[in-house]
Amino acid sequence: MSTAPVAFITGASRGIGAASAVALARAGYDVAISARSLEEGERHEHGNRAGAEDDRPLPGSLATTAKAVRACGRRALPVRLDLLELASLTAAVDSVEREWGAIDLLVNNGIYQGPGVMDRVLDLRLEDAEKTWRGNVLAPIQLIQRVLPAMVERGHGTLINLVSASGFGDPPAPTGEGGWGFAYSSSKAAITRLVGILAVEHPAPGLRFFNLEPGFIVTELVKRTGLGDELKGRYAGAPPEVPAAVIAWLATTDAAGEWHGKTVSAQRLCAELALLPGWPPPRDANEGS
After folding, report:
1. What's the CA gap between 62 and 82, in Å, rounded?
2. CA–CA separation, 43 vs 55, rounded Å?
3. Residue 148, strand partner residues
4. Cβ atoms 137, 189 nearer than 8 A
5. How far apart are the C-alpha atoms of 103 and 159, rounded to whole Å?
6. Number of C-beta neighbours around residue 223 at 10 A
7. Do the Cβ atoms of 252 and 27 come closer than 8 Å?
8. Confidence class for position 178, pLDDT limits 50, 70, 90
9. What pLDDT, on a 0 to 100 scale, did the predictor assign at position 58?
10. 127, pLDDT greater than 90
């Protein structure tokens, strides 16, 4: 029987979630991974505007992530989870605890992917705004309510919520021109408030709660939806391995305690601590000349 700590990650079929699963496996965690896509080629809605629905398969799946985790010598447990199906959240946690026991680290990475995310206010359908909030706010809360009591009882455990700079301020332009939509940014503003409150409500020294702001990350979804082209020139972008390296550092390093109850800028901290070899890449000597 494995004695390794157990991490549970949502949205782990691709992007930051998949990279984090690998980073945590390399750091010694057994990793339970959850998402909608169990196998490559599955079709799930991910278009980000009303009238522009898109369910073409994206690269990535839990099966692929699990293979990468096992290649690191750790156990992987793929579990189907849909953030809009609240019953699936409880079922997913039940499955992990039944198979492996207590969860030591919860990474709320998954987000709602669908119409409304990048719609302007006058185009925003209320049902899409509701889905965005259900997936980005209510689902993480439900997972925390399910996982945290056991952490409190044991006196140790870590929670990391992925947040967004869009929840901190106004966009530089409307959506479609380099900015972001209200539904998404407001949901991220809401979830940002959670870890500070948890830190006050549960002050035991063995419990740690973090927000992680990844910055602009070039994922499979960003490429497919065209966000990369919209934001080109405004944000440099970074690979998913950057926030993944910071997640592993927060989960395994005593020094991370200074960030308890606070928001961590993944790209800044990764660069300052040189957590990912080769990143950031060296600047061209002729750049700006």
Report:
1. 13
2. 5
3. none
4. no
5. 10
6. 13
7. yes
8. confident
9. 67
10. yes
Give Cβ neighbours of residue 261 (< 8 Å, ≥ 6 apart): 195, 196, 198, 199, 200, 209, 210
Q: Which two tokens stand for residue 241?
A: 């391995």
Report the SS3 class of residue 265: strand
Structural domains of the chain, with CATH = 6-273 (3.40.50.720)
> Sheet containing 105-108: which strands, arranged edge to edge?
76-80, 30-35, 6-10, 105-108, 157-162, 207-213, 263-265
- What digits encode the pLDDT tens for the residues 235-260? 668 999 999 999 999 999 999 999 99
Q: How confident is the model at residue 289 (pLDDT cuts 50, 70, 90)?
A: very low
Residues 6+ apart with CB under 8 A from 248: 20, 23, 24, 26, 27
| CB of 218 closer than 8 Å to CB of 15 | no
Residue appearing with tokens 């961590």:
264
Cα gap 129→104, rounded to integer Å: 32
Find out whether 7 and 36 touch, Cβ atoms under 8 Å. no
Q: Mean pLDDT throughout 35-53?
A: 69
Dist CA 76 CA 213 (whole Å): 26
Instruction: Please choose, from the candidates 109, 85, 142, 87, the residue with its C-alpha nearest in 3D space to the C-alpha of residue 32.
Output: 109
Of the candidates 266, 231, 273, 205, the residue with the CA atom closest to the CA atom of residue 20: 266
Does 224 or 5 have the greater pLDDT score? Answer: 5
Q: Which of 1-5, 97-101, 103-107 has the lowest mean pLDDT?
A: 1-5
Alpha carbon distance 45, 53 (integer Å): 7
Q: Are 220 and 58 in contact (CB under 8 A)?
A: yes
